[in-house]
Amino acid sequence: MAQPLVKKDDDHDDEAEYSPFLGIEKGAVLQEARVFNDPQLDPRRCSQVITKLLYLLNQGETFTKIEATEVFFAVTKLFQSRDLGLRRMVYLMIKELSPSSDEVIIVTSSLMKDMNSKTDMYRANAIRVLCRITDGTLLTQIERYLKQAIVDKNPVVASAALVSGIHLLQSNPEIVKRWSNEVQEAMQSRAALVQFHALALLHQIRQNDRLAVSKLVTSLTRGTVRSPLAQCLLIRYTCQVIRESAGNTQTGERPFYDYLESCLRHKAEMVIFEAARAITELNGVTSRELTPAITVLQLFLSSSKPVLRFAAVRTLNK
């Protein structure tokens, strides 16, 4: 007898039932977390338990103060393991648990030790965790290490420090503003992500000073920003300066428009699209100034990449 046809949707429903996290309960996982206290640690088993705990937290499950404290203390014991994969899970767990100021002291020494480790993965992740759970008092103690990390030769470490700076700027602006020299040095990095994060932080440090932002944009549009990601950011900041100086077209708009137009000839497609979109959104743009951007967008319509066709259609439609 012929098997009945099964619709695609039914297949997906069946697949959903095989989720490894289906039906896990907080109580059972907290019982499993006792493996963190074993004299002989099993890194794979510990990683699986942390994954379940992270899943519960991300599903909106709340832990009582006692439960969170017990899990936190148990997790800190895993610092004795040298397993890289497990250490990464430990960092994630500490960040998600957001320990109280009393508990932070317990992991600070372990994290600072990792910050000065020879293993770059330890250093980058320890910086992220410390900056996430730290307060102003501790930040002044580790400031010297963070400044060194911003100009580190390893791009992963430098990016971690810069991103941490972006987050810390909200809570400790005075401390982060003292890092301007190091951030400017990071702007010269050959690593695309480091240059991108450095520009984002530098702009945020100066964002309340219109003249400082204008000077930053002027210096960078004349220089060579290698990173396509940083170039996209610079185009956005340029547009911001153009809008703010719209009343003074003699000194503001024309030189910056030339920069935007030059970006239409960049080798990275994301930069070309960002520049074209920026030009189409400028106020008081003439048809002569608009033509190069429209031409580029029309070329994107015949691209083999769906994302470029979609972006071009949406921009042209506007």
TrEMBL record:
The organism's place on the tree of life at top rank: Eukaryota
Gene Ontology terms: biological process: endoplasmic reticulum to Golgi vesicle-mediated transport; intra-Golgi vesicle-mediated transport; intracellular protein transport; protein secretion
Single GO cellular component term: endoplasmic reticulum
Family annotation (Pfam families): Adaptin_N
Residue ranges annotated for the Clathrin/coatomer adaptor adaptin-like N-terminal domain, each copy included: 27-318
Parts forming coiled coils: none
UniProt-listed InterPro entries: ARM-like (IPR011989), ARM-type_fold (IPR016024), Clathrin/coatomer_adapt-like_N (IPR002553), Coatomer_gsu (IPR017106)
PANTHER family recorded: COATOMER SUBUNIT GAMMA, COATOMER SUBUNIT GAMMA-2
Name of the molecule in the record: Clathrin/coatomer adaptor adaptin-like N-terminal domain-containing protein
Organism of provenance: Punica granatum (Pomegranate)
